[in-house]
């Protein structure tokens, strides 16, 4: 199993932006914030990467810890830290998932199509981060 933690505020995959190439064709690209975060996740993951990229079916578990909101009371903060109060705000969990899977391509595995099981959850914490666990599926 490979597990690692990406410290800092999680960034969800943003909508692709459109622009014009030098030849006048329309091109799509990642927003800067999403692109930078994917590079950061890839860098952290590379420190835990296997000597050879994983092959075959994979199971990925991700916990996204969003920062506590400033308007939380002490009681709400305690509930959130204990996992009793969970984020039901945007962005959606699948927007986090897309960016993380893209970041791990060619770092941990060959292609994110190898991921056959994926679990993601959102939490609050005074220490924003993303925790990732990757394991091979044994058939």
Describe the structure.
The strands form two sheets. Strands 1-6-4-5 form a four-stranded mixed sheet, with helices on one face. By secondary structure, the protein is an alpha+beta fold. It is built from three helices and six strands. It is globular, with a radius of gyration of 17 Å. The chain has helices spanning 32-46, 74-81, 93-104, and strands at 2-7, 17-20, 26-29, 58-67, 115-125, 129-136. Helices cover 25% and strands 31% of the residues.
Number of helices: 3
- The class by helix and strand makeup works out as alpha+beta
Helix content: 25-40%
User: What's the average pLDDT?
Assistant: 94
The stretches of 5 or more residues where confidence is low (pLDDT under 50) are none
List keywords for this structure.
139 residues, alpha+beta, four-stranded mixed sheet, two-stranded antiparallel ribbon, 3 helices, 6 strands, 31% strand, globular
Summarize, please.
The chain is α+β, with helices and mostly antiparallel strands and 139 residues long. It has helices at residues 32-46, 74-81, 93-104, and strands spanning 2-7, 17-20, 26-29, 58-67, 115-125, 129-136.
